[in-house]
Predict the structure.
Amino acid sequence: MPVITTSIFELLKIGPGPSSSHTIGPMKAGLDFHRLMAELPPERMDRAHTLQVHLFGSLSATGKGHGTDRSVLAGLLGKSPGDCPPDFLDAIPFNRDGSLTIPAGGVEITFRQPDMIYDDGQHDFPYSNTLIIRLSGKDGIILEKEYYSVGGGFLQWKGWREPERGAPPYPYGNAMELWKQMKKRRLDIAELMMANEKAISGMDETGINRGLDHIIDVMEDSVERGVRTEGYLPGPIGLHRKAPLFFQRARGMSQNAERLLVYLCSYAFAASEENAAGHTVVTAPTCGSAGVIPAVVRLLRRHQKIPLEKVRGALLGAAAVGFIAKQNASISGAEVGCQGEIGVAASMAAALVALANDSGVRIAENAAETALEHHLGMTCDPVKGYVQIPCIERNAMGAVKAYTAYLIAREGLPDWHMVGLDKAIEAMNMTGRDMRAEYRETAKGGLARCC
Ligand code: SF4
């Protein structure tokens, strides 16, 4: 079993919505190409006159609605997801004729709208979300690179190799191996994950804690902005934001279980609506599912008054669930459908709630498994290719299911729990690979076809 060597800061990334595969990954590709052009000798750049971007798979099918075109261009202009201002994608400085002047390696290249090519939906590249960026001159191609946006904002390319990283002291590749390590070393999950993160990222504990606190802050900011922002979301659907209404209604309700549920939904709507607006969110584990974990984090912090240190430790445990799902299946809707996005987010969130409530790792694993099990088979079918319907409500349902999964795991007897997290992830992978392409982020099946 290959050892997981992903850093938590690669999984939980800060960047613009609405879809990590369609915005953060492509923006990174554009930025990488921007840097490669800057490294070319001036005599080669002097010959450059055409820059083209070919989008394949679901980048082609739904890239327009997801803002892939603007994300690649922002990267080509030198912007990176972590520091791109929230409104930059809405304000790319196009020329009057719709072209864009891109400074590259000491020259300026004019990118024209037809140079963004929405290519084949079906193809033979190793990953669905493929893009090729090509710089040409009169004598032919000067520079070309084939990129793969593999989900959650992760980017690979033709010939990509896993970068050299520090070896984690407690290696694991799946949930079973992780639990064995914890038992053998007598570590809790936060201690184990912290030790591994230090080795993988090369950061010290203070830096990691600071980074985790920043992630929690950005999650809470996305909720806070969302519950206070009225109006309509961009795009042709004309979808009204719901978070402020639900938040106000929850505030007016008497103290009961329903009130907490309405709050939880309002928080998930809030972060998801901010994502749909193309504003800054945390990929948890993707942009499309960026409302689930922030919603439960806000519930834990504001309603259950759970201290920051405890939520931070629980987030490390939740990240382990995301890593295992990514390594053994996928967190990309284009690869395995929505079960890999909202399903994995709910699974991570269920573990987070259990760990933050000191319920122990066995309950956390059962909760994570239960949450994922009840998302199995969920297709990705965004209406008109926009991460709005069904995505926003799915985040609310994912948060509610995550909390319910925790309650089922906590109130049941652990010995009665029959399915392990690894089995649910295996089932998700098989089910996702069996799904026809229409159900994997192409906006051609399911609700996208009917609405
Ligand atoms: S349906 Fe699910 S996987 Fe597809 S874009 Fe929406 S949130 Fe992402």
